[in-house]
């Protein structure tokens, strides 16, 4: 089975690396030629065009930033006939792993399925670390028989973490949305609580030592507070990405008529942080907006 991969950033490159390590023949494409060359150095076959990729691969993964990019990759720039859907033969499989709305992924699926191309909605979670380790959480939605055809491929990138969550395309994105809402909400409350505690006179190291053993602790606290204390805001999942993801969650809530009170507030908090200049920094930089208001800086010894 020949695998195609579009989008070779931090996530895509490492996903490709794990496909190669598991013995798959992988063909890669990215708008940045250097990104393609980087995958060639680890054994992938770089291609020059999306049409070439669609003609060559049996299964194509799309891992780009947003729906605009997904649409351009699948249907060509402004529908110019140079996209994947214009070259993939009937029976081939298109897997979209980008985070988009359920409505958007269904829109793409409907059009490609008219052309006889099978479609799988399969967002991922786990970040760069999960991509490197091959332990991404793969949340596949679509026909079960299609999932079974590509299950081994998915497991190469999501060892012990590959799930068929629904037959309904779009529900993979709903599952991903749960995770994004919980991460963002966790970061907002960690930012508020830790800023309050430090301004009250507690040391960050002490806060970490005690709260990391308490029932209220969460993964965001464990992962981000040590980085905050080192003032490491290198983007792993930027603030602005979470604004997009929270917007998707709110749209889902609106569509199914389910209230999203907390998510709406958290989106405003993230928007505020972006307006403060931290949009391209890591999720943990949300706390910098709170620091600015409290007139403190949370630093500490390395944990």
TrEMBL record:
Residues covered by the 3-hydroxyisobutyrate dehydrogenase-like NAD-binding domain: 170-289
Active site: 176
Coiled-coil stretches noted in the UniProt entry, renumbered to this chain: none
Sequence ranges assigned to domain 6-phosphogluconate dehydrogenase NADP-binding in this UniProt record: 2-162
Domain of life, per lineage: Bacteria
Pfam families registered for this protein in UniProt: NAD_binding_11, NAD_binding_2
Any one GO BP annotation for this protein: organic acid catabolic process
GO MF term set: NAD binding; NADP binding; oxidoreductase activity
SUPFAM superfamilies for the chain: 6-phosphogluconate dehydrogenase C-terminal domain-like (SSF48179), NAD(P)-binding Rossmann-fold domains (SSF51735)
Alphabetical keyword list: NAD, Oxidoreductase
InterPro entries xref list: 3-OH-isobutyrate_DH-rel_CS, 6-PGluconate_DH-like_C_sf, 6PGD_dom2, 6PGDH_NADP-bd, HIBADH-like_NADP-bd, HIBADH-related, NAD(P)-bd_dom_sf
Family membership noted in the UniProt record: Belongs to the HIBADH-related family.
Name of the protein this chain belongs to: NAD(P)-dependent oxidoreductase
Organism from which the protein derives: Mediterraneibacter hominis
């Amino acid at each position: 089975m020949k695998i195609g991969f579009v989008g070779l950033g931090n996530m895509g490159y490492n996903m490709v690396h794990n496909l190669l390590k598991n013995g798959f023949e992988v063909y890669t494409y990215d708008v940045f030629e250097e990104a393609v060359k980087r995958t060639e150095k680890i054994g992938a076959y770089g291609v020059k065009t999306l049409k070439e990729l669609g003609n060559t691969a049996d299964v194509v993964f799309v891992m780009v930033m947003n729906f605009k990019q997904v649409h351009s990759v699948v249907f060509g720039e402004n529908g110019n006939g140079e996209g994947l859907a214009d070259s993939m033969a009937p029976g081939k499989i298109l897997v979209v792993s980008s985070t988009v709305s359920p409505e958007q992924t269904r829109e793409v699926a409907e059009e490609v399925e008219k052309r006889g191309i099978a479609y799988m909605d399969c967002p991922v979670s786990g970040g760069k670390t999960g991509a490197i380790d091959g332990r991404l959480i793969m949340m596949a939605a679509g026909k079960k028989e299609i999932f079974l055809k590509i299950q081994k491929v998915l497991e190469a990138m999501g060892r012990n973490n590959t799930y068929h969550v629904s037959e309904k395309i779009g529900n993979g994105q709903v599952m991903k949305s749960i995770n994004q809402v919980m991460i963002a909400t966790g970061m907002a409350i960690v930012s508020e609580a830790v800023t309050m505690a430090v301004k009250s006179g507690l040391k960050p190291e002490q806060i970490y030592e005690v709260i990391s053993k308490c029932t209220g602790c969460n993964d965001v606290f464990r992962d981000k507070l040590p980085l905050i204390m080192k003032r490491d805001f290198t983007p792993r999942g930027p603030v602005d990405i979470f604004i997009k993801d929270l917007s998707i969650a709110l749209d889902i809530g609106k569509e199914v008529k389910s209230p999203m009170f907390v998510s709406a507030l958290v989106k405003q908090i993230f928007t505020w942080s972006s307006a403060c200049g931290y949009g391209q920094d890591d999720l943990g930089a949300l706390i910098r907006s709170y620091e600015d208001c409290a007139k403190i800086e949370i630093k500490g010894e390395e944990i």
